[in-house]
Inverse folding.
């Protein structure tokens, strides 16, 4: 099969970005044979610099540089120190931006500017970064429509959990009365490890070691990361133009090992539950520690699982879970979006 080159510009070479490159490298021949797609790394940027090339950068070399603690700027002959992601996007010829820089809930930057610049330059966007969509979903999608490009974001809600795709695609005919989700792995694993006798700080350090925690882990433990994801689901699945400011948010800092043990004695578990509940024409959104009974679809999640439950009119209760031992499923979701963009005949989605 003749292969179609897809030129990628990647911003952010951390836990997620590096693993995206590894998957694209290791599955190169599979994607060529199965989809006729040849992914070319046209440009990369991290916090210290950038590199780009019309011929394409070597994926494995870029991963090795990052694993050794280096920067995109260290790519011999093509890297430039102090060049921003935005500058890289202006220089490199790419078909699609992959955004994997850290979340910023103040103004969504620098990801917001990266996404705008990419759309204005005629690129599609695949983002793992929730910030711009949690803050400005309608605006981002309007710009994409205006430019005739697409923004895919299935990695933003629960990493490898197919929460967005199940909601948008598989329940498109149904009315969703309620969404419940355990959408933040760091806080979920902390609750589980508190129950095992670890301290809060030890449990947080373990989540950071596994690559799940946000660059700013307060976003995880204070509930804001889960709130971001809920806002994205509300916009994408419910068609409800939710804003982050309307989500009632409480994190897990007030939950002690004793409270978890008492809940257990009652046969229950405490989850940081994100909920969107239909009220009249709109939805009420909340994120808070919630005690649920053993019969709840998410009660049996392990410390490395996240999950989502849709309560619908025609399809009853639809639930999905994912194991995220490390960020590979998240990187896989980014690659899934890349393939979805280009594979002819595959569901074209949002
Ligand atoms: N980790 C997960 O399990 C997971 C799951 C779903 C979604 N996400 C989202 O994916 C995104 C990336 O997460 P991560 O875990 O990979 O983060 P990370 O390990 O902290 O990596 C962030 C990367 O972004 C780079 N960066 C920082 N500031 C930048 C800037 N101003 N311009 C360009 N690049 C910049 C960093 O550069 P340096 O390498 O130079 O430090 C690093 O390469 C986040 O938005 C996160 O919310 C993560």
């Amino acid at each position: 099969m003749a292969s179609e080159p897809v030129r990628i510009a990647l911003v952010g070479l951390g836990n997620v970005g590096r693993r995206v490159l590894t998957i694209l490298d290791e599955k190169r021949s599979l994607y060529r044979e199965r989809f006729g797609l040849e992914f070319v790394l046209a440009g990369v940027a991290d916090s210290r610099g950038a590199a780009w090339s019309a011929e394409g950068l070597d994926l494995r070399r870029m991963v090795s540089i990052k694993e050794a603690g280096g920067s995109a700027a260290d790519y011999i002959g093509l890297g430039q120190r102090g060049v921003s992601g935005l500058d890289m996007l202006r220089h490199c010829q790419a078909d699609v931006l992959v955004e994997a820089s850290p979340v910023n809930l103040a103004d969504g930057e620098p990801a917001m500017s990266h996404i705008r610049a990419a759309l204005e330059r005629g690129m599609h966007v695949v983002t793992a970064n929730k910030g711009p969509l949690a803050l400005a979903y309608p605006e981002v999608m309007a710009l994409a429509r205006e430019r005739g490009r697409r923004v895919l974001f299935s990695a933003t809600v629960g990493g490898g959990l197919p929460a967005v795709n199940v909601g948008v695609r598989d329940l498109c005919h149904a009315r969703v009365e309620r969404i419940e989700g355990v959408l933040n792995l760091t806080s979920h694993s902390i609750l589980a490890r508190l129950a095992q006798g670890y301290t809060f700080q030890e449990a947080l350090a373990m989540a950071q070691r596994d690559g799940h925690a946000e660059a700013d882990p307060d976003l995880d433990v204070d509930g804001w990361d889960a709130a971001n994801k809920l806002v994205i689901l509300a916009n994408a699945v419910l068609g409800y133009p939710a804003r982050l400011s309307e989500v009632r948010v409480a994190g897990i800092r007030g939950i002690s090992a004793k409270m978890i043990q008492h809940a257990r004695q009652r046969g229950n578990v405490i989850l940081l539950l994100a909920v969107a509940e239909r009220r009249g024409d709109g939805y009420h959104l909340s994120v808070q520690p919630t005690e649920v009974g053993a019969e709840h679809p998410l009660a049996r999640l392990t410390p490395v699982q996240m999950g989502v439950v849709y309560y619908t009119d025609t399809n009853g209760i639809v639930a999905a879970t994912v194991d995220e031992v490390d960020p590979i499923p998240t990187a896989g979701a980014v690659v899934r979006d890349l393939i979805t963009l280009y594979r002819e005949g595959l569901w074209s989605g949002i």
